[in-house]
Amino acid sequence: MSWEKSLDEIEKQLLPSHKAQMVFECLECGRTYHIDQFLYTCPSCKSLLRIVDRNFDHLKKVSGQQWRRIFTARRMLNLPSLKGIFLFYELILPCIPLDDVVYLGEGHTPLVQANDELSALVGADFFIKYDGLNPSASFKDRGMASAVSFINYSIRKRNISQLLGICASTGDTSAAAALYLSYLKKGVVRSVVLLPQGKVTSQQLSQPLGSGATVIEISGVFDDCMKIVEELSENYEVFLLNSKNPVRIMGQKSYSYEVAQQMDYDTTDLVVVVPIGNAGNITAVMEGFVDLYRLEIIPQLPRIIGVQSQHANPIARWWRDGRYQPIKVKPSVAQAAMIGDPVSFPKVSQLVSAYFQDRFSVVEVTEQEIIDQMLEANRHGHIVCTQGGESIAGVKKAVEQGLIKKTDKVVVDSTSHQLKFSGFQQMYFEDRLPKEYEIRPRKELQNRPIQLPASASQIAQYLNLQRKSCA
Predict the structure, then answer these.
(1) Is residue 2 in a domain?
(2) How far apart are CA 366 and CA 240, in angstroms?
């Protein structure tokens, strides 16, 4: 086929025309339910739901190579509804008309290679995907873009006059939910977030407050907040914005599509390292790569390495011992990952069994390793949050355990922006972290301002500068 003819074919497919048949499908009993309703668990057996397109195989009529060209060429369109995660419209929520898509600038975050010094410290060459450069400064915007677009579509189609969106959060989910909901019509949509009191950074707390959400703080940890919003979503007319809602997962799959695109779709020897948290993101990452593999857009599935702190490690224990059991968490600087009963664990288990049996593993890291690796990364030109530090620590541990080889291409997920966790950095510098974090600052990583007189000569003396010689 000539290039001119190939270009003509691509142009015809730049604007989506796929006729999807989207349904909720129960992970356990297999029952399906129409997509045009708000469901979070199976009405029959109460198990988790996923969203499937019964017409997915129709997408196979287009070759994998052609899909690559379409997704590349589509980036040149000046159409907001196809600029963000919905660039991959056919794989996200193709039941939503483009006019209902809410785009706030999310997606297409940079993939930056670690420099030689940092790679040497970690023991492997790797890339960091900066998902902290999303609008609310975390990866959660991917899922909120799909969820709030779904809300926008539902309000119009079902003529909904009032709707309350609610979520439990350790910080990032609340910021993203409040931001995206605030874009919709006032008086129709309200935003409510539940946070564990004293366990969210001041920077993260400021975000939902600034977006106008009702912020409710309760004593306990994230798991306690999650139980409450689960009960509310089961018994009251509210829209759940946590990753238990499969509409959220659909948007977060875009992370995998972008990584594949940024790696020129070469997934041979690709390893993707992800902090686990509530397990929604690692679920979405795996589902996204499965989509690409089924359409032959990528040659093989990558290996997935999940990372957990020893202070919040139920899935690491399951991977090690073969038995899943919720745990009581201890404080973690990776606050978003401080979850003792990840709601999406059943999806992780099923995906591993179906697709990733020999391509999935979990490593545990200490709190010391998490914050040290965050600081090391940022000392070497990056903007990594504590969850990103957890992932980089996971790379180092995976290298030590032989899970990552020299020939592998490694991508690390830094889920949030460094500045959201600057308080932990400051406590580290000042050696004020409470004992329960089990962290002792390393002197070479501590830093603080130096007070000097407003005198060029005294500053030059302190910096040991040499005077210029006269010509």
Answers:
(1) no
(2) 32
Q: Residue 342: inside a domain, yes or no?
A: yes
Helix axes 64-74, 3-13, angle to 10 degrees: 70
Q: Is 445 exposed, middle or buried (0-12, 13-18, 19+ CB in 10 A)?
A: middle
CA distance 372 to 27: 39
Question: Would you say the C-alpha torsion 269, 130, 204, 234 has a positive or negative sign?
Answer: negative
With cut-offs at 50, 70 and 90, classify the pLDDT of residue 6: low
What are the residues whose beta carbons fall under 8 Å from the beta carbon of 269, sequence distance 6 or more?
405, 407, 408, 409
Tell whether 443 is covered by a domain.
Answer: no
Handedness of CA 393, 399, 401, 404 (dihedral sign): positive
> Does residue 357 lie in a domain region?
yes
- The predicted-structure confidence for 303-331, as pLDDT tens digits, reads as follows 999 999 999 999 999 999 999 999 999 99
Residues 36-80: tens digit of each pLDDT: 999 999 999 999 999 999 999 999 999 999 999 999 999 999 999
Pair type for strands 163-168 and 127-130? unpaired
Contact at 8 Å (CB) between 95 and 124? no
For residue 38, how many other CB atoms are within 10 A of its CB? 17
- The pLDDT assigned to 3 comes to 40
Report how many domains make up the chain.
Answer: 1
Question: Could you tell me the residue range of the domain that residue 300 belongs to?
Answer: 111-137+249-431
Contact call for residues 274 and 256 (beta carbons, < 8 A): no
4-13, 198-207, 264-273, 333-342: which range is least confident on average? 4-13
Q: How confident is the model at residue 469 (pLDDT cuts 50, 70, 90)?
A: confident
Token pair of 267 as six digits: 């997934």
Residue 321 token pair: 């011992």
Record the pTM. 0.94
